[in-house]
Amino acid sequence: MHDSLLRDVDFWWFLFDIDRDFAKNAREDGCLCGGHLHAGNYFRNPRGGPDDLPKECCLRLSLCCGREGCRKRLTPPSVRFLGPKVYLLPVIFLAAAMRQGPSPRTMRELSTLFGADRRTLARWQVLWQEHFPQTRFWKVERVRLPHPNEATLLPRALEMAFFTSHNLRDDWERLLCFLAPITIAGGLALAVPR
Ligand SMILES: [Zn+2]
Q: How far is it, in rounded angstroms, from Cα 103 to Cα 116?
């Protein structure tokens, strides 16, 4: 399974580059007030990645408006960080997906692999299976998947939809870019019931 890729530092540089593109695009768009955006990056101390993950790879790219009276912070989407969560997004996804499918991993195995305790792993199951399907994001975007009404549990349904080529990095990129809108503030907001 692809958990070995998540221990490869190169993979995290690859994701860092994607985040850099997100930040570049956001910067070009500018602030809503019309002001210019400046780099307001900050370091995070994420868990679940390789032990030798360089500090530079833990930089959360963020922007600040330079206009007096606004100074708004704008944190663009990410393929690495899921909002304020301490564990890295690919880890939160993969650990939950590995609990499912024809040969699900045990909590103990996943705990050893990713260093997360049982309670944390259980929370991720709840996130993907109970919270995520209720989000505005999912209600709108699920139609982009090949079988939007398939009863397969999340997040495995996403794994099956995106991991289709023979290039794991490409598949991760497509999946994480699809999910990126949920990583910004309010990205996991629930759909308003009609
Ligand atoms: Zn502004």
A: 20
